[in-house]
């Protein structure tokens, strides 16, 4: 019995030690604490490359800086470089923006295995100066910045691992038939500020990009809507083109669309149910030639219709029925620089119970003179403090300008990078 008693005591002591260890561990610290950083939607955590093991200090190109706190990154930006330095094999992030680089040869990338991001923006790279296949060999590359260069063509070939490709502010006027093939993981493609026209899109280059969530085609030469966009699309930017018509049922297959920007085009008539989309939050149709409004989906929060030819805002067209169990979420309307002579009907506040701001600004009623409605800005749901401040400064509200609403116009700016 003495031996058994001693064993029992040892067992109890061991159990107490284990219990104390778990008691000191606060599970809430792991599961209830907000994460320090959440990756943007366009990163795919499953493609994380294996981090190599290397001795310290790590190698770094003489022209660049490799901070000890970020041993996988090499910073070569803003150094007036004309050529690419040799890249150590362990580097995952390479920053070469704001230099005078004209060519991308194969040699500096010979021993690179783990490279995941390259930033070549704001250089002088030309398409014919990129060695064939130099990017395709980088099998872990996820993000490639080539905006603000002198590219005439879409870079090809590219690695299948690529998720984000930024090509804005170049001179791209053509997309070869197979330019976008073999890129199954692309989620974000930026082609703004190039020379793309309708003939380039006849081959339906985006149709097979099954994971594409953001497509930027602003500031090009498009006259028609791009054909056969993938159903995965969530953010579409078509500002500053010459599009005059949206085909009926065009958005039928784009049910995931959250933000649509088509300001500065030539739109005149919108088919009534064009934007009957269940997830649409932002719709920007400012600076077109619209004469009347259209159906507003219940999910929409921000509507921009400034600088059009609208004479009256027909609330019945925007909201044909009221459903108390599924109310419209619209909170903001910008309607300045139209031809309105009277404010929106008070019926709008039954249809859109969440409306906080309607900005009327100046109206182009007469050809040679702009006029202003009695109240250029209407605001709802003010707190008592806000109400007192508004009463004290009502004259200031009467003189709100277009610039005062730039922040509202950029509501979804982070999605259009």
Automatic annotation (TrEMBL):
Q: Which organism is it from?
A: Anhinga anhinga
Q: Which PANTHER family does its entry note? A: AGAP008170-PA, OSTEOMODULIN
Q: Where is the signal peptide?
A: 1-20
Subcellular compartments: Secreted, Extracellular space, Extracellular matrix
The job of this chain, per UniProt, is described as: May be implicated in biomineralization processes. Has a function in binding of osteoblasts via the alpha(V)beta(3)-integrin.
Q: What is this protein called?
A: Osteomodulin
Sorted UniProt keywords: Cell adhesion, Disulfide bond, Extracellular matrix, Glycoprotein, Leucine-rich repeat, Proteoglycan, Repeat, Secreted, Signal, Sulfation
Domain called LRRNT: residue spans: 59-93
Q: Which family does it belong to?
A: Belongs to the small leucine-rich proteoglycan (SLRP) family. SLRP class II subfamily.
Where it mainly occurs, coarsely classed, is secreted
Segments for region (Disordered): 388-409
Cellular component, GO, one term? extracellular space
Q: How does it assemble?
A: Binds the alpha(V)beta(3)-integrin.
């Amino acid at each position: 019995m003495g031996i058994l008693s001693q064993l029992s005591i040892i067992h109890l002591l061991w159990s107490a030690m284990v219990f104390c260890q778990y008691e000191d561990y606060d599970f809430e610290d792991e599961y209830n604490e907000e994460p320090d950083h959440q990756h943007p939607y366009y990163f795919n955590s499953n493609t994380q490359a294996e981090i190599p093991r290397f001795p310290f200090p790590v190698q770094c190109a003489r022209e660049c800086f490799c901070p000890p706190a970020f041993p996988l990154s090499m910073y070569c930006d803003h150094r007036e470089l004309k050529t690419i330095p040799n890249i150590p094999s362990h580097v995952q992030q390479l920053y070469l923006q704001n230099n005078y680089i004209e060519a991308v040869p194969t040699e500096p990338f010979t021993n690179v295995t783990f490279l995941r991001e390259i930033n070549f923006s704001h250089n002088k790279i030309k398409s014919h100066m990129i060695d064939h296949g130099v990017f395709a060999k980088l099998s872990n590359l996820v993000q490639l910045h080539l905006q603000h260069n002198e590219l005439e063509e879409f870079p090809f070939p590219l690695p299948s691992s690529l998720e984000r490709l930024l090509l804005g502010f170049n001179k791209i006027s053509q997309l070869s038939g197979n330019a976008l093939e073999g890129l199954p993981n692309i989620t974000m493609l930026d082609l703004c500020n190039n020379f793309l026209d309708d003939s380039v899109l006849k081959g339906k280059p985006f149709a097979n990009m099954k994971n594409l969530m953001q497509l930027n085609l602003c500031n090009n030469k498009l006259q028609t809507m791009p054909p056969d966009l993938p159903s995965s699309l969530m953010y579409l930017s078509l500002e500053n083109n010459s599009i005059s018509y949206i085909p009926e049922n065009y958005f039928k297959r784009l049910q995931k669309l959250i933000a649509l920007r088509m300001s500065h085009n030539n739109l005149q008539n919108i088919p009534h149910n064009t934007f009957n989309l269940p997830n649409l939050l932002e719709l920007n149709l400012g600076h077109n030639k619209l004469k009347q409004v259209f159906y507003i989906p219940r999910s929409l929060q921000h509507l921009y219709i400034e600088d059009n030819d609208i004479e009256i805002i027909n609330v019945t067209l925007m909201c044909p029925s009221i459903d108390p169990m599924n109310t419209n979420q619209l909170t903001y309307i910008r309607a300045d620089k139209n031809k309105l002579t009277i404010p929106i009907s008070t019926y709008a506040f039954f249809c859109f119970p969440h409306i906080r701001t309607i900005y009327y600004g100046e109206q182009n009623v007469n050809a040679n003179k702009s006029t202003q409605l009695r109240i250029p800005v209407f605001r709802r749901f003010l707190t008592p403090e806000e109400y007192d401040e508004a009463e004290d400064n009502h004259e200031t509200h009467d003189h709100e300008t277009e610039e005062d609403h730039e922040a509202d116009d950029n509501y979804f700016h982070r999605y259009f990078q």
